[in-house]
Amino acid sequence: MNYCPCCSSKLLCHINQQKTYWFCSNCGQEMPNLNDLNKTKTKADHTNLSVLSTKN
Length: 56
Prior knowledge:
By secondary structure, the protein is of the alpha+beta class. The protein has one domain (about 10-55). Helices cover about 40% and strands about 20% of the residues. The chain has one helix and three strands, in the order E-E-E-H. The protein has one helix spanning about 35-55; strands at about 10-15, 20-25, 30. The protein has a three-stranded antiparallel sheet, with no helix packed on it. Strand 2 and strand 3 form a beta hairpin. The longest helix is centred in the C-terminal third of the chain and has 22 residues, at about 35-55. It is globular, with a radius of gyration of 16 Å. The termini are far apart.
């Protein structure tokens, strides 16, 4: 389950022609999926560490 980072309400998944996004009906605006952002950041961190370790 995904929750709004501003108000902790449940986020609704919306799909349009270009993308899938999360919407908070309480705040009335599109919200980032922080779970996906954390996965992307963690993957990038691991990639950066691998590159740094091979350069030394």
